Amino acid sequence: MPLICKRVFRQIFCLKTLFLFRGVFEQLLAEIEKRCLSSGGWASGNSRRAGIETTCYALMALHNRPSLVRDHAVDLLLRTQNPDGSWPAFEGDDPEGCWTTALTSIALRSIGAPSGPIEKSIRWLLNNQGREGHWFWKWKFRTVDRAVQFNPDKYGWPWFPGTVSWVIPTALSVIALKQSAPCCRTEPIVNRIQLGTEMLRDRACPQGGWNAGNGIVFGSALAPHIDTTAIALLALTEGNDTTVVQGLNWLRQACVDCSSPYSLAWSAIACAVHRDEALNHCIAGLGKRLSSTDAISNIETLSLAAIALKAAEGNANPFEEVI
Q1: Between the CA of residue 78 and those of 3, 53, 73, 248, what are the distances in Å?
Q2: Which of 189, 219, 243, 267 has the greatest number of beta carbons closer than 10 A?
């Protein structure tokens, strides 16, 4: 889509969403703030311990809403960072860090946090890779373990260190690296971005979109997942890339019958980045399912919905790369 058309499309859609969903958006933010933990951050489900993923989404939703709740969430993230620059899955867990490191880097950058913790996290990401990046595992996947069809030379990031690459942690890590200022993108950063994007293209499902890990297992094509596809598309922003085009085509069709506000929110965030026409449908469907915010127990869904509504209005999208 030409740049001028993208701008016009976004301005028209911005006015529409402002009129229809402004009340819903304010309810989302109020509900998110109400559910914060007294110690800072947010818990997932019925847990009383802060989850790093949950806190990151909530913080991104509240990023331009100054409050003690927001400040306490930032403090939680800063004090839970491991000495090596990584973050655990929950407060007090995983001293070796995990996939939430990329997500926390994105969240902290979106609210203008100090650069020191973010730079430490980037160094950790550069030193972390899927197990198939090791020569022994490359040999194993090429010769002995052929159940899963993929190119082991193209690896990304795992959920936890020492395991194989998966789509979501790889996509989020690519986004975190892409958000480094262009002047600060060293050769290792550029190389890992390239390798990560190649891994995502290699693991795409034949019919378009992405499953959690691989597109083909035991010779059979796996079904794509909506949220995984949307997150992968956030990392792959080259509009004329065949894999991106196929992924967007699949996502448009999948969203038609989607009833999950969580998946619709991720889809809207991805469509906003790609300036895709399906954004209108995703936001309309999301708005219908958010008529009662107190009926949604999942903080992640509430937060992602708020992020999606802001992105649709033309506000800064925390998952966009730095140009």
Answers
A1: 38, 14, 9, 36
A2: 267
CA angle at 316 for the pair 243 and 299, rounded to the nearest 5°: 85
What is the CA 50 to chain-centroid distance, rounded?
Answer: 19
Residue 12 has pLDDT above 70, yes or no: no
The three-state secondary structure class of 33 is: helix
pLDDT digits (tens, 9 = 90+) for 173-195: 999 999 988 777 899 999 999 99
Return all residues near 4 (Cβ < 8 A) that are at least 6 apart: none
**pTM confidence score:** 0.88
Same domain for 85 and 61: yes
Q: How many domains does the chain have?
A: 3
Residue that the structure tokens 């809207």 belong to: 268
d(C-alpha 70, C-alpha 128), whole Å: 30
224: amino acid identity, one letter: P
Contact 226, 254 (CB under 8 A): yes
pLDDT value of residue 141 = 55
Element (H, E) at 216: strand 216-217
CA angle, residues 106, 107, 111, in degrees to nearest 5:
115
pLDDT band at 96 (very low <50, low <70, confident <90, very high): confident
Contact (CB, 8 A) for 206 and 196: no
Give 177's Cβ-side CA count (13 Å radius). Answer: 29
322 within a domain of the structure (yes/no): no
Q: What is the three-state SS of 136-202? A: HHHHHHHHCCCCECCCCCCCCCCCCCCCCCCHHHHHHHHHHHHCCCHHHCCHHHHHHHHHHHHHHHH
What token pair was written down for 115? 């650069």
Q: What share of the chain is helix, strand, coil (3-state, %, to 5)?
A: 60, 5, 40
Going from the C-alpha of 246 to that of each of 48, 207, 224, the distances in angstroms are 41, 7, 12
Helix axes 299-312, 278-288, angle to 10 degrees: 140
Hey, is 129 helix, strand or coil? coil
Segment 106-123 mean pLDDT = 95
39 within domain boundaries: no
